[in-house]
Amino acid sequence: KENLVKLANLWDSLNVTYGGAYYTYKLAEIEQNEIPKFYSKKAILGFSIFFSSIFGGILLMQNLKEIGMEKEAKTVLKTSTILTLLPFLLAWFMEKEVSTYTFLANIIGGLLLSEFYFGLYIPKEQIFEIKKIWKPLLISLLITIPLIASVIYCA
Fold it and tell me: What is the spatial distance between Cα 58 and Cα 80, in angstroms, rounded to a whole number?
């Protein structure tokens, strides 16, 4: 048990050391007078819960691309896609209603994106301007409303 604790502590110290150096490098690339614009944690959580995890994932992906973290942005997009598809797969295997799992998956996905991935890739010390959500909100509504209407109409 003590060896596991030592291993976990070593992993944490390596992660902090590597992560800190990587963030310092990436943030040094941004000019001092240029403050990046990000979607906030609340926006990512809200879009994930009310639309789906993929909508929140796209917002976080845009944040990461803003500071040149392309590889991490792809990881976030893949994760949010899996979290969006997961309730449908569960419902199909368990022969239950999709809505039972969708809302729970959206909450879990939103928390994972806004708390874990946001905190993992964007340091707390990062200063940023908050992007307005009107454009993504309009796009999300233009995608979601026809889908909901077609489900209601076809049901």
Answer: 8
pTM value > 0.85: no
- pLDDT tens across the length of the chain (155 residues): 566 566 556 555 555 544 554 555 455 555 455 788 999 999 999 999 999 999 999 999 999 999 889 999 999 999 999 999 988 888 777 777 767 678 888 999 999 999 999 999 988 877 888 999 999 999 999 999 998 899 888 86
Cβ neighbors of 105 (< 8 A, separation 6 or more) are 53, 83, 84, 86, 87
| Residue 145 neighbours by CB under 8 Å, 6+ apart | none
DSSP-H helix ranges across 30-133: 41-50, 53-66, 70-94, 98-111, 118-121
Residue with tokens 């729970």: 104
Instruction: Give the integer Cα–Cα distance in Å for 37 and 76.
Output: 18
Helix axes 53-66, 98-111, angle to 10 degrees: 20
